[in-house]
Amino acid sequence: MNIYKHIRIPLFLVLLLACLRLDAQEYLVVSGDERLLAGRNLSYIEMKDSTSLEEALKNGEWITNDKDILNFGLSDSYYWIRLPLVNRTGGASLSVNIDQATLNLVQMFQADSQGVYHRTHVAGTNFPFSWRETNAPTYIFTADIRNGDSAVVYIQAKGNSPLLVPIMVSRKRVALEYLNERNAVFYGYLGLMACMFFYNAFLMFSIRDDKSYIWYVIHTFLVALTQASFLGYPFQFLWPDHPWIAQQSFFILTCLVSIVGILFMQAFLQTRKFTPRLNRLFSIFFACYGIIMLLSLAGFGTTAYKMLQPTQMLVAVFILYLAGTLVRRGFKQARFYLLSWSLFMVSIIVFALKDFNIIPYNTFTATLMLTGSAVQVVLLSFALADKINILQATTIRVTKENLRIIEEKNAELALRVQERTQELLDTNQELTETLDDLKQAQAQLVESEKMASLGQLTAGIAHEINNPINFVTSNVSPLKRDVGMLLDSMNVIESIGLQEDISTEEKKRQIAAHKRETDFDYLKMELDQLLKGISEGASRTAEIVKGLRIFSRVDEDDLKFADINEGLESTIIIINNLLDHIAVEKRYGNIPLVECYPGKLNQVFLNIFTNAIYAIGEKYGQQPGGKLTISTRCDEQDVFISIADNGSGMSEETKKKIFEPFFTTKEVGEGTGLGMSIVYNTLKKHNGQIEVHTEEKVGTEFVLQFPLRQTAS
Q: In angstroms, rounded to a whole number, what is the distance separating the alpha carbons of residues 152 and 386?
């Protein structure tokens, strides 16, 4: 039959069993405001599985307890406990307080007026906290026994840690007063731990270089949470609806607080530095704690506890030995640690003595573990404070020594500074002179680049003007000859016309004969052609002069509104003699006047055109096929100028360096390496930028972009 169903036992069987055991087990008589420990009035039976009360009464051998506290040790068994009670408190019921928060299963059975036993209460970490009758971290059950009556109640208990079952019986009011007393002790403990936590957390953020404070703060938090878990408070307040967490918290928190405690010790006592061999053994303990947590999570709670007990004992002894070793070596900080750990171990031992009925069970002994952990945390805080004092004393001593050394060094440095200052003054003078020389050299180089451009400009102008001038001068002699012939013909015609002795018809005949003789019609046609040639030569010369006038604004330093297309065209005119066998394609957009330095932009165009012609010459030589494409456009803010060629192109390495001063790919003597540097700086002066798109053996495109209007900087 399931233990969660009603258990029906014949009344005569219950009475018979009660009579048989009455002499062996006395009733616990509760009177007045007494709170009695019921250990010696109990009998119990061990069952390997969760049997019903009826089966336990039929088949089990009940053992009378002779101790104040039931201590079943570590066991997977279920225990039935028989508690005979007599109520003489004057109240209508009694409170049964099972003062052990970590039990997995606790349920109480009581007979009704017909002698049939029913389960009246069920609780434990296997069930939600809300199942409990009283909102308390331990178990407080009401036994319905009227004043003057007696009754036997049965309790079933199960746990996966050492099964200690301290049972106290009293009136409900007395039980609640005891609960309040225990709560007051715990809340006082919690307040002390909170003070230690926040105080040292503040120091942790102030002293960032010392990891001891980090581990101490975490250790303090885990100690408080672990002690609270032993007493059942986290299940009551933090995870009341999660029994699984309540079951695992004992093992998980115990292992975590031990691991962090070891990490704190390693940081505080510097065991890696002072006891490196012993420090390596902690890795074994870390592995053990990891296995224990895995066993607990896997549901092997009893096995986990069997491994936890010896591990904790070994860790405690090892820590005492390690701290003692450091104390013997004169490590002052280890004294506080050894004292705190020793007192905590004493509190654990005394706490355990009550479980073995060696010392009385009362509020003091039941909460002694809290006292021990609080003392340990406080002493460790003192140890950290003492460490700070030691560091401060050391710092003061070192500071004084440093001040003495600094004073000595200051005197030495003053002399060296004086000597060094004079050296720096001399060096500074040399650097100033060198800087002046560099500025002069830079100015000369820039002037050299301008002169190179001017030389190229002069050669182009001479070549361009020479052609139309030659055309004019070559037509002057034929024109002079033809004009002379024309004048002679006019004289002959005039003499014929003035003759009076011949008729008009004869005059016409003689004049016509003279025209045929002198080929007068051809003479007129030749005169027209010569005059037309002279006119074209003069117009071409005027066009070149106009282009020269536009281009020759190189040294202007004032912003002006200029026609970009006109500047490009004038530059092409200047270098026209270099464009043999090179096709020029112009795609001028409709661009408004642009605020710029026109002469400096013309030099930019000249430098880019010159490089493009050089690249085309490298690829095609004097053969046709070279092409130079010039296009312009604008948007609402900027003007864009593209100058592209189909020459030899550039490698990526060359592309990265083309704007560096003095960088050139031309032969020695063919370039200064300043042309593209001037281009870059001029575009920067116009608040613009230049993009380069190139591919070896395909060609290069320069895209110039700058604002239509310059803003004042």
A: 59
Give the pLDDT score at 131. 92
Joined tokens for residue 441: 């050299």
pTM: 0.54
- Which domain does 526 fall in, by range? 433-550
382 plus 347 within the same structural domain: yes
17-19-23 Cα angle (round to 5): 115
Round to whole Å and give the CA distance between 524 and 509. 20
Residue 534: is its pLDDT beyond 80?
Answer: no
- Shared domain check, 160 and 124: yes
Burial degree of 180 (CB within 10 A; 0-12, 13-18, 19+): exposed
Q: How confident is the model at residue 4 (pLDDT cuts 50, 70, 90)?
A: very low
10 Å CB burial of residue 697 (0-12, 13-18, 19+) is exposed
**Euclidean distance between CA atoms 72 and 165, whole angstroms:** 8
Can you name the residues that pair with 595 across neighbouring β-strands? 561
Q: What is the pLDDT of residues 329-343, one digit of tens each?
A: 888 778 888 888 888
Residue 532 neighbours by CB distance under 10 Å: 11
pLDDT at 524 over 80: no
Residues 644 and 623: their CA atoms lie apart, in Å, by 19
Least confident range from 116-125, 436-445, 504-513: namely 436-445
pLDDT of residue 505: 82
Judged by phi (left if over 0) then psi (alpha if -120 to 50, else beta), residue 27 lies in: beta
Query: Which CATH number covers residue 678?
Result: 3.30.565.10
- 30 forms beta bridges with 87
Give dist(CA 679, CA 603) in Å, integer: 8
Assign 3-class secondary structure to 439-467: HHHHHHHHHHHHHHHHHHHHHHHHHHHHH
The DSSP code sequence of 488-552 is HHHHHHHHHHH-SSS-HHHHHHHHHHHHHHHTHHHHHHHHHHHHHHHHHHHHHHHHHHHHHHHHT
Q: Which residue has the higher pLDDT, 294 or 510?
A: 294
Amino acid at 689: Q
Same domain for 610 and 567 = yes
513 and 596 housed in the same domain = no
Residues 528/533/539/540 CA torsion (nearest 10 deg): 170
Q: Which two tokens stand for residue 158?
A: 């199960």
The Cα 700–Cα 608 span in angstroms is 10
For residue 96, the surrounding DSSP H or E stretch is strand 94-98
Q: Give residue 290's Cα distance to chain centre.
A: 31
Q: Do residues 565 and 542 share a domain? A: no
My answer on whether 616 and 698 are in the same domain is: yes
- Which of 392, 411, 442 is the last residue in one of the domains? 392
Strand partners, 594: 562
One DSSP character per residue, 386-405 reads HHHHHHHHHHHHHHHHHHHH
400 found inside a domain: no
DSSP tag of 51: -
User: H or E segment at 64?
Assistant: strand 63-64
Count of C-beta atoms within a 10 Å radius of residue 410: 10
Domain assignment present for residue 6? The answer is: no
Write a three-state SS string for 117-148: EEEEEEECCCCCHHHCCCCCCCEEEEECCCCC
Question: Counting Cβ atoms within 10 Å, is residue 225 exposed (0-12), middle (13-18) or buried (19+)?
Answer: middle
Pair 249, 365 in one domain: yes
Element spanning 71, H or E: strand 70-71
CA distance 483 to 41: 160
